[in-house]
Each structure stands twice: as structure tokens, then as C-alpha cells.
Design a protein that fits this description.
By secondary structure, the protein is an alpha+beta fold. Helices cover 34% and strands 23% of the residues. Strands 2, 3, 4, 5, 10, 19 and 20 form a 7-stranded mixed sheet that branches. Helix 3 runs antiparallel to helix 4 and helix 10 runs antiparallel to helix 20. It is found in: Membrane.
């Protein structure tokens, strides 16, 4: 054999071996991928682990009186590892699966026992290690589920997996919901206190070891977290639940009555700046209103006549006019630059105080134009010195940007100065305007509104917030006194006489502003915004308030009959509920033959409290001195309710509400005839009561 042939044979042999090796590799690859693929994929999955973040329970938000406004409640997804310990044995699983299915069906009542059994059996055949059984169940439900067949074997033997998530709930539902707000971790959207104080409320996330199983699903390895999450801090807001409920209901009632587009109300404590109530509603359907936008802090718009307070403040402080200066309102029409300024009524020749009380646009426009036309910046700079062109720096996001024009503004024209005098060609939010009125009530000290009183963690104070002073004194004491006099005059003599209350004094200003109709501006359909801003009680202000109602379409659109009633309703209840305020008013003295109030039978302690408040002494029918005491002086004879278990009570002389309460608690079923107070009852007092016994009470 020659050398060439020998070399070729060796080459062919080597090449053949390479081909055989390559074929062997391909065969093995095919075997691994196609024949044993599931086995090796499962092995790979079982070896893939990582640490997943565990969301911390967010801190609670409370009202100033301790009521819970927002909290996190744990919810659980129940899943099942159908290859877990004890049930890996088919005999154990199939012996109890129907019992488990029956328990799930009986408890949740969403599927039949057969449906649950079929689903569990199919998941078993597929080797599902993370089978979803039920979403979003409570902790109480979780405790019950753990006692079901198979699951009661434990996490590793029974295969039950509970995945916790925290759900944010508002116990008072829509009460101040826009102010409480929300924080969306996915979109990073922040609204209200939830967003503004997210760094405190969110807490610190924990860590949990999870492993990837078939299908790319990550399953917890252990029941407990490797690093426990740290709960968030609690926020103590300034909101008063009762005041919030009152303001919200009063506003919604007026919006429905007026068929308005939207409205808002804010109640602020004068000395502290704390927001006690804030409500916003906009129409979503006829007669239906929801809180979807915070108009109170975000809606920057032309306020109209409520801005005249700022105009008068600047002009009086500059010595441009006094309250007794006379002005001719020109029949209620004043033409300037081919534009006519109009009054609602022709007031004739009046003092500037009356012009404010009657809300004369002509009077203030003539005075401001006459005194500032040659130097309008003197007027606008004083408005800016009141910080009306600045944001307040609120504790919650979304504050609207105010606009106070200057002669350097691009949109400045000859009409701008006269228009600004009565609240047009400028923009301000309701809460920014309220801050000015609150400063007048607070003897000139302007403070920023507060929404958060305190931050606490585990009951300990982390941060305490107090009033932030914006301006120590907005004007001189003399000017301040004149402004207060005018604001009180608006309610006693001017446009807000409808809301005057003889028991306490309200001070404030009405505003009925025409608003632009979208792209059509002021030439389109006429729309109005009614507002009232003020404080109470005027002699010793404790609360300031603003009410805004946009585009009322039913009935009157004037502020005195749209925004004013909301203010009055809220103020009346607040005054009546606040003992400190209510005690400032002396009760009328009973003299001569004044008739004492009629008395109905009732509970001793409640009646004593009423008598004491009225300054009336009580005489009690009972002679048991240790039980109720004896007052020998003149007063009202009174009989204490006596109830003996199992015996018919005496309800003669009671009002219907009290009688129904007593009879119902005694186990009787009352039938009512007539109205007034109880004059007779069909069953004599002291007779035995039998179950379901009916009693007829006649009222007269």
C-alpha cells in the first residue's frame, strides 16, 4: 500500500468518527429536549430562587378626634401545592379531595362541590404546584380555610399556600376621600395625604424567598418572611369627622337643589389654620355627585365680588378712600373703554361702606380707577404683598397657581385695573381666598392652612405640625377694624341678610361671578359661580369658611341664596355643637309669669343636664334621696322612668320616640294611634309581659 492510500484511509476513518460523534450528540440533544425535557425543566425550576419584596402595611390616617379615615386590611389569595408532602400519595389525596371540595363549596358558596372537586383533580393531574383556589379573602376566612380537610395537615403536608396582600380601605367611604387621597405604586400617582406623606405611610418593604416552578410562577419557599416588613407611620389629620360629614351633606344637598356643575366647601380653624372639613363634588349624572377632583385647592379661577375684600384692604390702607366717602353709582351702569360695568341694582349715591355691603361693582371700579390709573403697579404690588399671587405651600399636592397681573403682564390692558377691582382678570383658588379672610378673622395674622396635625409611629410622635405664619400683619389695626365692620354689615344689612342669625353674628362677603363658557368665553351661554366667604362668630371668630357653587341652573344663581345657605347650615350646627361657642350666648331670663317648659317622663341624668343648661331647678317625684336627690326649691316636678324586667312599663306622658324605645326594650310590640304625647296605654303598667305581646298606645 502506497503512502497516499494510507493517508486517505486515515482521513476517512477520522472523518467517519467525527460524523458518528456529531450524530450521537444530536440524538442526545433530541432525547434531552423532547423525551426528558419536562424532567430537566422541573429540576432547573426547582433550583431557581430569588428574594421578592414584601409590601409593608401602610400606616393609618386618623381624624383629629381619633376616628379612622384610612387603613390597610390584609387580604389573602389561597393557593395549593398539589405535590406537597402528605398528599403526594394518591391514596391520601383522593380519599379527602371530595371532603375539601365540599368544605370550600359550603363556605364560599361560589361553586358546587363537583366543580371544586373537578378543578382540584385536574390540577393534580397537571402537577400544578401553585393552583389558585380563591382570591381576596379576609383573615377570618383564612382561619376557617385552614381547618378544612387536607389543609389541616399543615403548609408542607397539606399544600395550602396563603399569599398576603394589603388592601386600602376608607371606613367612612367618601368622607373627605379626595383629601385623604391615594398612592398608586405602579404609576407613582400621588393624591392627597396618601401621596404627600407616602414616605411615612408606606413603611419599609420586607424580603421573602421564592422559587420558580413550572410555568414560570414564583412560589414562596417558607411561610414566614426572611426579612419582615416594617409598618408605616400613622398620620393624624386635622379633619373633624362630624364637621366633615355636616359640610359634605350641606354642600351636596345644595348642589342637587341647584343642579350645579360642581362645588366645594372648606372649614378652617382661625387660630391654628387647621382644616376641619373640606369637600368637593362634581356632577356625574343628573342629581348624582361624586368627589373626583379637589376644586378647593386646585381650581384657580376668577372669584368675583369676594375679592373686593382685598381691593378695599389695599385702598383703605393706602388712604385712597374711607367708608363714609360718597360715590355715585351712575344708575348701576358705568362705561369704561367701551365696556359697561353693571350693578345688580341701582344703588344711587351711597357711602363706600354701603357699596361693599350691597356689592356695588360700579362704586369700587370708579374708586380704584380714579386713584390708581396713573400708577396701577401701586395697586397690584400691594395685592402681591398680601401673597395673593403666591402658592400657599400646602401639605398635599395639586395646589392651583394663582394669577395677579401686573402692568408688565402681556395680557394687561386698559380694562385690567378696573376688572381686577371686583375680582376679574385674576385667578385664585378657594383655599387661597379663604386664607385671606381667615387672616382678617385672626386679627391680621395670615397663616397657611394645615391638613396634618401629627405623624406617629407606634404611638410615639415623629413630627408635630403647627401653624406656619405667612405674614404677621396684613394691614393696620384701623384698616382691620373697618374690614370687620364691613363684613358684618354684609350679613346684617347687605347682600347676605338671608343668612343672618339673631343668636350669633356671621361676617363675610357674597360673590356672584360670571364664568367663561369654554372656548366661547363670556359671549357664550351665561354661567355663574356663587360663593360666600367669611367667619363666625364675628365677635370672637373661631372658624372661617368658604362655599363655592359653580353654574347653578335651577332657581337663583345669586350667592346669597345658593352659597349662603350652605354656610349658614354648617355654621348653625357647629355653633350649637361647640359648648365653648354656645356658652358665649346668654340664655333668656325667665321673668314674671313666664311659662316653664313642658316636661315629659324620661331619664334622670339626661333631664338634669338639660335643666342645668337652662338654669332651671328640678323637683323630683321620688323621695329616695340617695337615688336621685331632693331639690326643695321651686322648679319643675319630674318623674324618673322605672322599668321592671318582665313587667309592662308606664309610658304615659312620654313622646312617641321615647315610648317606642322603652316598650321595644321591654319586649312589647307597640301599635300607635294619634300624635303628640302618650295619654293612655292598653296594658296597665306592672302587668306581666308575654312573648310577642302587643300594646296599643294612644297619643294626643
Amino acid at each position: 500500500m502506497n503512502i497516499r492510500t494510507n493517508i486517505l484511509l486515515r482521513v476517512y476513518a477520522a472523518f467517519g468518527l467525527i460524523i458518528l460523534f456529531a450524530v450521537a450528540v444530536l440524538v442526545k440533544m433530541a432525547n434531552v429536549q423532547l423525551v426528558q425535557g419536562d424532567k430537566y425543566r422541573a429540576m432547573a425550576d426547582s433550583l431557581s430562587t430569588k428574594y421578592a419584596e414584601v409590601e409593608a402595611a401602610r400606616g393609618n390616617i386618623y381624624s383629629i378626634d381619633g376616628s379612622l379615615l384610612a387603613t390597610s386590611v390584609p387580604e389573602y389569595d389561597i393557593r395549593m401545592d398539589l405535590k406537597a408532602g402528605a398528599i403526594a400519595d394518591n391514596q391520601v389525596f383522593y380519599a379527602k379531595v371530595d371532603s375539601l371540595a365540599g368544605s370550600l363549596s359550603d363556605y364560599f358558596k361560589d361553586k358546587s362541590e363537583r366543580e371544586y372537586s373537578r378543578a382540584l383533580r385536574n390540577a393534580r393531574k397537571e402537577g400544578d404546584r401553585y393552583f389558585l383556589i380563591k382570591r381576596n379573602i379576609s383573615y377570618q376566612d383564612l382561619k376557617a380555610v385552614k381547618t378544612f380537610p387536607i389543609f389541616n395537615l399543615g403548609r408542607y403536608k397539606g399544600g395550602m399556600i396563603a399569599v398576603q396582600e394589603n388592601k386600602r380601605i376608607l371606613p367612612f367611604r367618601d368622607l373627605a376621600s379626595r383629601t385623604i387621597g391615594y398612592y398608586n405604586a405602579n404609576s407613582k400617582a400621588a393624591v392627597g395625604l396618601e401621596g404627600a406623606y407616602g414616605d411615612y405611610i408606606n413603611g419599609e418593604t420586607g424580603k421573602r424567598l421564592v422559587q420558580r416552578i413550572a410555568g414560570g410562577v414564583w412560589m414562596p419557599v417558607n411561610d414566614d418572611d426572611e426579612i419582615a416588613p416594617k409598618e408605616g407611620a400613622d398620620i393624624i389629620s386635622t379633619i373633624d369627622v362630624n364637621m366633615q360629614d355636616l359640610a359634605q351633606n350641606a354642600l351636596k344637598k345644595q348642589l342637587i337643589k341647584s343642579a350645579a356643575d360642581f362645588g366645594c366647601v372648606i372649614v378652617m380653624e382661625v387660630k391654628t389654620g387647621e382644616i376641619k372639613a373640606i369637600s368637593n363634588f362634581n356632577k356625574v349624572a343628573d342629581g348624582e355627585y361624586k368627589e373626583t377632583f379637589n376644586y378647593a385647592i386646585a381650581q384657580s379661577a376668577e372669584p368675583g365680588s369676594t375679592f373686593k375684600l382685598a381691593t378695599y384692604l389695599v385702598a383703605i390702607e393706602d388712604g385712597k378712600f374711607g367708608l363714609n366717602d360718597i360715590v355715585n353709582t351712575d344708575g348701576g351702569n358705568y362705561k369704561i373703554y367701551n365696556h359697561t360695568i353693571r350693578d345688580h341694582e341701582n344703588e344711587g349715591i351711597i357711602p363706600m361702606k354701603v357699596a361693599f355691603e350691597k356689592s356695588s361693582n360700579v362704586a369700587i371700579v370708579k374708586q380704584i380707577y380714579k386713584n390708581y390709573k396713573d400708577d396701577p403697579s401701586a395697586f397690584t404690588s400691594k395685592l402681591r404683598a398680601l401673597h395673593l399671587g403666591d402658592k400657599l405651600g400646602l401639605q398635599i399636592p395639586g395646589e392651583g397657581t394663582p394669577l395677579i397681573k401686573t402692568p408688565q403682564s402681556k395680557s394687561w390692558s386698559g380694562l385690567t385695573l378696573p376688572q381686577m377691582a371686583y375680582g376679574y382678570e385674576l385667578k385664585i383658588t378657594p383655599i387661597q381666598l379663604l386664607t385671606l379672610y381667615n387672616a382678617v378673622a385672626n386679627n391680621g395674622k395670615m397663616i397657611a392652612p394645615l391638613f396634618v396635625h401629627e405623624i406617629r409611629r407606634l404611638g410615639n410622635t415623629v413630627e408635630l405640625f403647627k401653624a406656619r405664619v405667612i405674614k404677621d400683619k396684613i394691614c393696620s389695626d384701623r384698616t382691620l377694624g373697618l374690614l370687620k365692620e364691613m363684613l358684618e354689615g354684609v350679613v346684617t344689612e347687605g347682600t347676605a341678610k338671608e343668612i343672618n342669625n339673631p343668636l350669633y353674628q356671621i361676617a363675610g362677603k357674597t360673590g356672584t361671578a360670571q364664568v367663561a363658557d369654554g372656548a366661547n368665553g363670556y359671549k357664550g351661554k351665561r354661567k355663574y359661580q356663587a360663593s360666600f366667604c367669611g367667619y363666625f362668630p364675628a365677635n370672637n371668630p373661631k372658624y372661617s369658611m368658604i362655599v363655592v357653587v359653580n353654574n347653578p341652573t335651577k332657581g337663583s344663581y345669586y350667592a346669597s341664596s345658593v352659597a349662603g345657605p350652605v354656610f349658614r347650615e354648617v355654621a348653625d350646627v357647629v355653633i350649637g355643637s361647640d359648648l365653648e361657642l354656645d356658652n358665649n350666648h346668654k340664655l333668656p331670663q325667665l321673668v314674671g309669669n313666664t311659662k316653664l317648659p313642658s316636661v315629659k317622663q324620661g331619664y334622670k341624668k339626661s333631664s338634669q343636664s338639660v335643666y342645668k343648661s337652662l338654669g332651671i331647678k328640678a323637683l323630683y317625684a321620688s323621695t329616695n334621696e340617695n337615688e336621685i336627690g331632693i331639690d326643695s326649691s321651686n322648679g319643675i316636678a319630674y318623674q324618673e322612668i322605672k322599668m321592671n324586667k318582665g313587667l309592662v312599663p308606664n309610658v304615659s306622658g312620654m313622646g312617641l320616640e321615647d315610648a317606642l324605645f322603652v316598650l321595644g326594650n321591654s319586649g312589647l310590640k307597640p301599635i300607635v294611634k294619634g300624635e303628640g304625647e302618650v295619654k293612655s296605654q292598653s296594658l296597665a303598667a306592672g302587668t306581666p309581659i308575654y312573648k310577642g305581646t302587643r300594646i296599643l298606645i294612644e297619643l294626643q
